[in-house]
Amino acid sequence: MAFDEGLADRIREVLAGEAGVVEKRMFGGLAFLVGGHMAVSASGQGGLLVRCPPDDTAALVTRPYVQRFEMRGREMDGWLRVDHAGVATDHELRRWVRTGLDYVRSLPPK
Question: Do the beta carbons of residue 69 and residue 61 sit within 8 Å?
């Protein structure tokens, strides 16, 4: 499945004016990186991938349409998958993009 171009465009709009954002195709989707770290991605499996503080993962997955990101059968703290319904409004998308940006900006650049 190709990533959702419409979602990618919406992410670009949210990120307009943010310093240091780079787009890169990763994991079958289109990732948006800061300092070499992926903040969010229009996922190739649908929806949005979001980086978050690992210690916040358990609380964030209690929200509707959110689950831990799974890679090779392993759920990963610090990575979330937000279904399309969870980013249906611009307000919801901005909130998730901000979560990813705030976290990766707290990390040292790669």
Answer: no
